[in-house]
Amino acid sequence: MHEVEAKGILSAQNGMNIYWGCSHGCIYCDARSTCYQMEHPFEDIEVKINAPMLLEQALRKKRKRCMIGTGSMSDPYLHLEEKLGLTRRCIELIDAYGFGLAIHTKSDLILRDLDLLKSINQKTKCVVQMTLTTFDEMLCKKLEPNVCTTARRIEVLNIMKEEGIPTVVWMTPILPFINDTKDNIQHLLDACKQADVYGIITFGLGLTLRDGDRQYFYRKLDEHFPGVKEQYINRYGNAYELPIPKERELYAMLQQECKAAGMEWRSDVIFDYMRRFEDRQAGEQLSLFQTFEVYGDD
To answer: Rounded to two decimals, what is the model's pTM?
Structure first.
């Protein structure tokens, strides 16, 4: 790792990334792509050591409260976070200033901050997003080797359910010839239904590959799935989008299952939901005022 003094922390869309790079080792990670112009090795994680200070400055300047997002480029619960605690300090500020939170992770370290997530969710909205790619635990250890497996992530989703915290699952990527089976997708859907997740994000069923990401992914295919790289090259060439062979059939199944279970599958609707700030305290105050009007002060 190496520390930097960042100049800013929030994007124009109120997203933040405290870390840059990753230690989870997911073989398909798009963040390795050269288009992001990372100037350091991917595993040499850049730490925005002044992130809490920058975030507090930004929140103080906000004229309206809103949802703050994190986890889009780098997981906020990397192994470093256990020692550094920067994510927790930032969530403390989000809670203290009354903002909402949409946080995306693959790690059960998020349970360390359950007290803050519950506090935020009582006042506004806290949405926990979790990535699930395969129900097969051994396969998960190959695809995402340095982070907790699917079974533990499902436990996290169910804990959030028990605490009344809404969840969204990123069921992506679905890798051609590896985890693109009807059985795998059905098992993941069943877990999502059990956990009462709000919605499932897929962007279709498949993955994307570009320079930097592609080379690493192909090396890992040769290491763990001999012969599969050649299937990719023969079918997709150098395409950016790689839909699974039965994408239309299995996506139709996913939509049908989501509709039946009351889970959202339309990405635009899910993103609108995660961006929408809700002032639950104001709602409670209004409810009390309306009750006073109905019953009077006798």
So the answer is: 0.92
